[in-house]
Design brief:
This protein is an alpha/beta fold. Helix content is about 30%, strand content about 25%. It is built from eleven helices and twelve strands. The structure holds iron/sulfur cluster. The site of iron/sulfur cluster has 14 residues, from loops.
């Protein structure tokens, strides 16, 4: 990332690191360190949908949550409009969270089952002093309309809605405080394919109408290719390739991106593309292989790949890669 690109970014993440210590093993548990994020850097421009993609356990959801400080990073910088998010105290962070919202994979788990939808949508606006009285009720109605739900949804409970409708409620709740950036954490992966397309079209419409930006966390390359304008591919806590879409998936450089892309990407969220099977299991982030973490599964692995992690290389036009095949 050049200094100019970082300066024009809505969100700029640099060198983000998060290690968790966990106790594992029976009957003699031992403490191990899981390297969930190991120096992750990316930027999101205003109005852009930026994808974070990779297999389960690669750190993409942790990265999304760390941006909001729902998980506190150990190291690294997070700048929103150039402001250092990690330096904010609780009050300033709460104010900033109005501008950065999250939509979760499981909308049911994130909605209070005993709270009417109208109250769920009204509360964030009350907390941030955005509306009250009749104006508040009108804003709730407008939000429901914007996400394609009837006005009487305000007087109902979460269990009365389908999975797709609940995700619309989760989106409406995020929109209620007029954010500029939404972290969408696998927002459609719990939904049926036909419903996925409807929710993605809703999210894209909001991007166009409101100028909303997204960090779009997903394991589904077909969805990311259709929805996002740029993407970073993660593997075991690190970004291995980054670039604009669709160019990066049309001509991937990193062997892992090539393997993920599969045989035929389909630029339509209604035609689900599942990941191609890659030889071997994903190694544990608690004990990543030395050198390039991908080397045990890489068909191009060389001797140096087993001992030396490849440095990040900027290739111009927003593209970058970490692979010894691109060393000078
Ligand atoms: Fe494969 Fe080596 Fe590149 Fe890693 S650095 S992806 S092992 S060629």
């Amino acid at each position: 990332m050049t200094a100019t690109a970082a300066a024009s970014a809505l969100l700029d993440v640099e060198g983000l690191r998060k290690f968790f210590t966990v106790r594992r093993g029976f009957p003699n548990p031992r403490t191990i360190t899981v390297r969930a994020l190991d120096g992750v850097s990316f930027s999101v421009r205003p109005g852009e949908a930026f994808g974070l993609v990779g297999e389960s356990g690669c750190g993409k959801s942790t990265a999304g949550r760390a941006v909001l400080r729902l998980i506190e990073p150990d190291e690294g910088a997070i700048r929103f409009h150039g402001k250092d998010v990690r330096a904010l105290d609780r009050g300033a962070l709460r104010a900033l969270r109005r501008k950065m919202q999250i939509v979760f994979q499981d909308p049911y788990a994130s909605l209070n089952p005993k709270r009417l939808i109208g109250k769920t949508l009204a509360e964030p606006m009350q907390v941030h002093g955005l509306a009250k009285g009749a104006a508040l009720a009108e804003r709730v109605r407008a939000l429901l309309d914007e996400v394609g739900l009837p006005a009487d949804a305000a007087g109902r409970y979460p269990h009365e809605f389908s999975g797709g409708q609940r995700q619309r409620i989760g989106i409406a709740r995020a929109l209620s405080v007029e954010p500029e950036l939404v972290i969408a954490d696998e927002p459609v992966s719990a939904l049926d394919v036909s419903i996925q397309a409807q929710v993605l079209l809703l999210l894209r419409g909001l991007q166009q109408r409101r100028g909303l930006s997204y960090v779009f966390v997903s394991h589904d390359l077909g969805v990311v290719r259709w929805f996002c304008q740029a993407v970073a591919v993660m593997y075991l806590g690190r970004i291995v390739e980054r670039g604009p879409l669709p160019a990066m998936f049309d001509e991937p450089l990193h062997p892992y991106t090539k393997a993920l892309r599969g045989a035929s990407p389909v630029p339509d969220p209604r035609a689900r593309v599942t990941m191609m099977r890659i030889e071997g299991e994903v190694p544990s982030a608690a004990s990543p292989p030395p050198g390039c973490h991908f080397h045990p599964r890489c068909p191009h692995a060389m001797e140096r790949c087993r001992v030396e992690y490849p440095a990040w290389k900027e290739l111009g036009q927003g593209r970058g890669v970490a692979c010894h095949l691109f060393d000078e």
